[in-house]
Amino acid sequence: MGLLQDRTALVTGGAGGIGLATATRLAAEGAHVFVTGRRKTELDAAVEAIGPAATGIVGDIADPADLDRLYEAIAGRGQGLDVLFANAAVAEFASLAQITEEHFDRLFGINVRGTLFTVQKALPLLNDGASVILNGSTNADVGAEAFGVYAASKAAVRSFARTWANELKGRGIRVNTVTPGPTDTPGLSGLATDEEAAAQFRRILAAQVPLGRLAGPEEIAAAVVFLASDQSSFVTGSSLYVDGGVNQI
Ligand SMILES: NC(=O)c1ccc[n+]([C@@H]2O[C@H](COP(=O)([O-])OP(=O)(O)OC[C@H]3O[C@@H](n4cnc5c(N)ncnc54)[C@H](OP(=O)(O)O)[C@@H]3O)[C@@H](O)[C@H]2O)c1
């Protein structure tokens, strides 16, 4: 028996990086996992890799109509939803002087508005005792240059977890944030202009981490499985740092 035997889970942004690693672990623990993402080819490949315990639904979390379609599909399975990992987000650099309205709207539209409606629209489907996990970031606590809008979006997400944990406690629904440090994913490397710059960027970030390396996406997934399962039954409203010590020491 896995830790999540016969549960139903949703991972947004589940076609790559931390989302794919987590969807893979949730399935290995016995859950049926819905995964969503905007690119069909990547999503199909992820579903194929995870196996028969996965269902892919193409969609953008920033589009309420896509969220409605996603939740219709989950409702059609007839088991409600036990685990919601609101993971999808985007990151881009822009200093205060460089920020445009488009940059702000894109990051807040996906990371904040999209996360909010991902959870709000799940409410009728969430089973009593469900676990909601939001993906935060260590950047929410620090002032990394040219990362202000992303950092603020993740601070908003962390704040949502506190409020929603309070609002949903009566249904036994726990809401927590997982807070990754730098993690080796396509999204992280995509912040650099080319592969050489990405390798240099990964080296610089790794040197800032007390454990001396980036996290693997499966290390974040392990923490999400803990928060998703009954192993964390007395944990709500909290933030679980999986950061190699970068924000701790
Ligand atoms: N990697 C890190 O160092 C790190 C550190 C702290 C926190 N995080 C957080 O961890 C989460 C995952 O990051 P990652 O590094 O794994 O990113 P990633 O490699 O870029 O993967 C993100 C996934 O989300 C999907 N996605 C993006 N926007 C979406 C949208 N609007 N609707 C639906 N799906 C969407 C992408 O697929 P499509 O493009 O096909 O939609 C992609 O598969 C994010 O919340 C990120 O902020 C990452």
TrEMBL record:
<protein>
    <submittedName>
        <fullName>Oxidoreductase</fullName>
    </submittedName>
</protein>
<feature type="domain" description="Ketoreductase">
    <location>
        <begin position="7"/>
        <end position="185"/>
    </location>
</feature>
<comment type="similarity">
    <text>Belongs to the short-chain dehydrogenases/reductases (SDR) family.</text>
</comment>
<dbReference type="Pfam" id="PF13561">
    <property type="entry name" value="adh_short_C2"/>
</dbReference>
<keyword id="KW-0560">Oxidoreductase</keyword>
<dbReference type="InterPro" id="IPR020904">
    <property type="entry name" value="Sc_DH/Rdtase_CS"/>
</dbReference>
<dbReference type="InterPro" id="IPR002347">
    <property type="entry name" value="SDR_fam"/>
</dbReference>
<dbReference type="InterPro" id="IPR036291">
    <property type="entry name" value="NAD(P)-bd_dom_sf"/>
</dbReference>
<dbReference type="InterPro" id="IPR057326">
    <property type="entry name" value="KR_dom"/>
</dbReference>
